Amino acid sequence: MNKAMKFILCFTSIAVIATLVTTFEVFYFGESSKPKKSDCIIVLGCQVYGTTPSPFLAWRTEHALKLYKEGYGKYIIVSGGKGQGENISEAEAMKRYLISKGMEASKILVEDKSASTMANLINSKAIMDQKGLKTAIIVSNKYHLKRASLMAKQQNINGSYSGVFVTPYKHHEFIGYIREIPALIKYYLVKLL
């Protein structure tokens, strides 16, 4: 076997192993994460259709409300800016949703400037610092939690994690898992370089 073939074989083996390990990490973290009683609950943004939360965003927000009602947090930080095709920010859509379900507006903290998961967490941490909140539960889809946890640690957020799996949209969820694997590998590679 010549050197080029050895290199290709070695590279392919490393790529396959990295993909398998990352796949396991994404699935295991999403399934095993459990919320801990915290000062606040951060809901990571997702698409809004005009002024209506997408099913993924509605499920995330509903899950955060459930945790809040069960005493897991004193505040909910709704996090997400206004994206293309959205008439209001993701944070505003979540706030309206929570108020429509009977939550007090004073317990909803709005972060409406971010356009990425990292920005969600940076801006939410700034709100936590302003309010003297030390701990958080981070809510997203299960497939998203592993990468969100790494970013939260980078921002020194003392967090636990709780995810949703939007059952009526299983196909979209599985696509989310597939897309998350290269996204997490990219995150690791950027951190290494």
From TrEMBL:
GO terms for biological process: Gram-negative-bacterium-type cell wall biogenesis; peptidoglycan metabolic process. CDD domains: YdcF-like. It holds the Pfam family DUF218. One of its GO terms (cellular component) is plasma membrane. Residues 39-170 form the DUF218 domain. It comes from the Bacteria. This is Vancomycin high temperature exclusion protein.
